[in-house]
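Now for our target.
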Amino acid sequence: MTDGSDNKTEQDFTLYNHQADLEAPEVSASESKKTNQAVQLKVGNLSDVQKSAGKFKAADLYYSVDGKTWTKLDKDTVQVAENGKVEFKYQDVYGNESKVTTYEVKNIVKEVAAQPELKLTPDGEGKVKAELAFDKKDVDKDFNHIKYSLDGGKSWTDYKDAFTLTHNGTVEFKSYDDAGNESQVYTSVVKVERKLPAPDLTGTVEADKSVEVKAGNVEQAEKDADGKVTLLYSTDGKDWSKVDGEVKLTDSGRAMFKYRDGDDNESAVVVYEVKKVVEEKTAEFKPENKDDSKSDSKSDSKSDNKAETKSDVKTDTKSDVKSDGNGEAKSDNKPSAKMIKRLTARRLQRVARRRLVLRRTRRLLRRQARRQLRRLRLTRRSS
């Protein structure tokens, strides 16, 4: 070699001259389904292409993600983490290049396509309808799904159709897809409202004039509540106490009662007039007025006394009501509703009989008076 100043330089070099028709890379992916993981692309004919070079230097494999910058691969695979096009080619030291093979990765899904939404529709009668849906339209429901949990996330159920909730609680729900992506977990509080029947109260008056009160429709209330209910009572409307079976109230004022279910629903408040009940029950056991018995005729009094004595003895024996000899009744046991009804019926019968006796007595007196008047008139005429 000689430069412009006629300086000469000598250097040895090797000139390669080899023309080859390189085969294009054959590319395949490790995963064709949708996935949230990186996809591995593999060139399947690298070994064959390199062997075909014979005594010449084998071609190398190159790839590019922008079509401009090429990177040499030391192996036949490359990991792709994002969707997009990847180009491959072979090139050797002789300047030979294969055709470019382009592979487009489009099955990587990094997040769910839509978020879930929950719609709650209460009916006011102890049921809430729950419906789940996506917050977007045109979502591929074969690939995207929704699931929910009613136990705080311990177990999950795939949502298919609307479901019904009958008690207070929480609903947790999330969307997910077949690629393994999940949305955040959403939580919604459910309040179930229902109407409870008011307590059906019955009271039993004790000898000390206290009243044992209990509710007779607990089973119906629990059926309506779809669970246990608690009977509560209060004497001031502020502080409420639980009733276990029945509660004993003293002869003063009044008490209020209501039901409460496990979802904090409450029935209407029922006011129980304790003092009034005691006074009414006590009045039914007072002795009859002596003047009423005097107005009866002797024959009717005897028959009434016999009939009443027999019936009273039988009834009192069954109901454990004893007489102290002065006409006052003492109750060893609490009077039942049936006993009170029988006593009331007997009392009405006695009153009806006395009225009948009075009417008969008046008619008899009127007849006697007319007879005496006729006798007086006959005596005056004869004289």
Notes: Residues 288-333 have pLDDT under 50 and may be disordered. The chain has six helices and 23 strands. The first helix runs from residue 46 to 51. Residues 284 and 340 are 8 Å apart (CA to CA).
